[in-house]
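Encode chain A's predicted structure.
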Amino acid sequence: MRVAVCQLNARDDRAANLAAAEALLVRAAEAGADLAVLPEYVDYLGPAADMPAPEPVDGTVGQFFAGVARRLGIWLVAGSFHELGPDPEHTWNTSLVFDRAGTLVATYRKIHLYDVEIPGRVSYLESATVAAGEKPVVVDVEGLRVGLSICYDLRFPELYRQLATEGEAQLLVVPAAFMAHTGRDHWEVLLRARAIENQCFVAAAGQVGDHEPGRTCFGRSMVVDPWGTVLGQVPDGPGLTVVDLDLERLRTIRAELPSLANRRL
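Encoded structure for chain A:
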């Protein structure tokens, strides 16, 4: 399975954001990717006052990525977008997965919301405008079990353990818009930890750079193997990396160091 993680600098122009995402997906397909992963809030990352109206999963954003997946013949984890939520004050932060025919095969709504106050650094209350999802999701991608998550979920290892054990995930995907302040110290460490402890591949696609006053994302999108080795990483700026997942190596690691099988709790 060849996987691409795409790194974007989405801003306050939805049409431009979608065009930039499509351009990276074209490059991924040309490189032979079977599955491509886009970042969190691929549709819009700018001032809340100017955000386009939230949409259902089959709205403009969903139809756009369904069409791209179909045209390119790839599986696509379309990062996340602002889905029409349960009430007028709240959206859902939602990831859509499309197969090679452009059929929507899975929907995941972000469970853990980014409510953080770091004095002088970060002040963000995601739950003020976003409703939390409730259900972990694993999707079968041509025999590869893929566990879905979004950004702040990364700090909650119990979610990934459930994806790996109950969901039998072999690949964990993490679309993200990870803040630069915490990303410098925690992003790679957390991704490698989730890979090691769950003996899974991890594919993390991040936003990068400035998006609005006071919000800068870390980037450094990467693919990590079940031993915690970084197989590919995108440098600063928009771009992508394409990595072949060696599923035999995953089986070997799980057989030789069977920590999942040995767990007691």
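The first strand starts at residue 2 and ends at 7.
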